[in-house]
Amino acid sequence: MLLNRRSFLSSSVGATTALAIGSLKDDWVRHVHAAHQQAGGRSPEELSADESFWFQIQQAFDLDRSLINLNNGGVSPSPRIVLDAMIRQLSFTNHAPSRHLWQVQDPRVELVRERLARTFGCSSEELAITRNASESLQIAINGIDLKPGDEFLTTSHDYPRMVNTLKQRMAREGIVLKQLRMPVPVESHDQLVRLFEESVTPRTRVILVCHIVNITGEIFPVKRICEMARRRGILTIVDGAHAFAHFAYTYDDIGCDFYGTSLHKWLTAPIGTGFLFVRKERIADLWPLTAADDPKSDNIRKFEEIGTHPTAPRLAIAEALTFHHGIGPERKEARLRRLRNYWAERLRRHDRVRIHTNLSSNHSCAIATVQIKGVDSEDLAVHLWNRHKIIVAAIAHEDFEGIRVTPNVYTTKRELDLFCDAMEQVVSEGLPSPSP
Ligand SMILES: Cc1ncc(COP(=O)(O)O)c(C=O)c1O
């Protein structure tokens, strides 16, 4: 039986839940409505400085403010409306899983596909919903037919799991992996395009490149790299794990063959959501990771044959998209960059502080990595948590180290002040000695 609103409300549990959800939802709507009234016709840049507008957005999240979470790049909390939607869908599944999951909820994922595709700027027939960027990118990396000796070109800043996927193909099939050494920080987009251009050989079949690098926050000139590759008949996979709903762009700004992203980072969708884009003419040739009825089909849904899985997180993506569009992608980008600049510009004044991110607006957005010279970055991250309850990600790379700082739209300037105070204390006094 399809659970309609009336039958749901007629049960006492349903009525209580609906009341609770209704009041939370109204609360969220009130905040976003108030924010919209305040926004008026101001530019994203002007609005990014209006703390009372962003206060309304901050209130849409149910958080524990007794800690300061500056690792939203790893995985982000969802706004209350997204969490509520997921819990509601999960309860509904649980009433009669075989019927509700497969007959009622799964078909509705099609609307989510359509909405994601519109936001990304592709056809819904080119977008598969996955559990994360890792799954999306592994489908692409493993699914392309290659012969021994064929080259896969990527960088020293690509994500370890993706590089491991390539190494597995290397070990099993004899493909050749080439990793370009990346400059830190990057000086210019021309420098990056040139590096890729100079490294392709007649054996290069595929390029894997990050849209935005997780350890430095560098946004790559992916469109220019993909155009250069296409002119040479080379396929392109773009790792957009950190890009989607972080800064404003659409597929036309990329032009790759395959794109993988997570939605539990910057879209603030439920944990365990992502998507894979495959250019229409490439779908038939790409093997699915988990076997489908017709692996050579050109139906994008062949990449979703993973067996029984929860639909609730997928359906709640719709609420995350509503929240994202409710703020506005350009406004969100401007605010994230302002928050990043707020802390980075204060800290970079100190001689011992190194920022490993090019802070110009066409090179980065919310993510930046900072190091205090002479202080071990892993110890610094542990200290920030133990002493100040601040969460950051320690970065240890063969070329540099630091802590990665990623605020989100719910982050307040006061929280960033506390972070800067804690960092400045370490700059002047060093880390406290460990207790005996
Ligand atoms: C560049 C990059 N690619 C891929 C991933 C994998 O994302 P997930 O763990 O959500 O699959 C990450 C995760 O942080 C990442 O930073």
Explain what the structure shows.
The chain is of the alpha/beta class. The chain has a domain at 103-320: Type I PLP-dependent aspartate aminotransferase-like (Major domain) (Aspartate Aminotransferase, domain 2). Helices cover 45% and strands 13% of the residues. It is built from 15 helices and 13 strands. It has helices at residues 5-10, 12-39, 44-47, 51-58, 80-95, 97-120, 133-143, 160-173, 189-199, 222-231, 312-315, 317-327, 329-347, 377-388, 413-429, and strands spanning 68-69, 127-130, 151-155, 176-180, 204-210, 235-239, 258-262, 274-278, 353-355, 368-372, 390-391, 393-396, 401-405. The strands form 3 sheets. A 7-stranded mixed sheet has the order 2-8-7-6-5-3-4, sandwiched between helices. The protein has a 4-stranded antiparallel sheet with strand order 9-10-13-12, covered by helices on one side. Strands 1-11 form a two-stranded parallel ribbon. Helix 2 runs antiparallel to helix 4. The chain starts with a helix and ends in a 7-residue tail after the last helix. It binds pyridoxal-5'-phosphate. Pyridoxal-5'-phosphate binds at residues 132-134, 159, 161-162, 210, 214, 239, 241-242, 262.
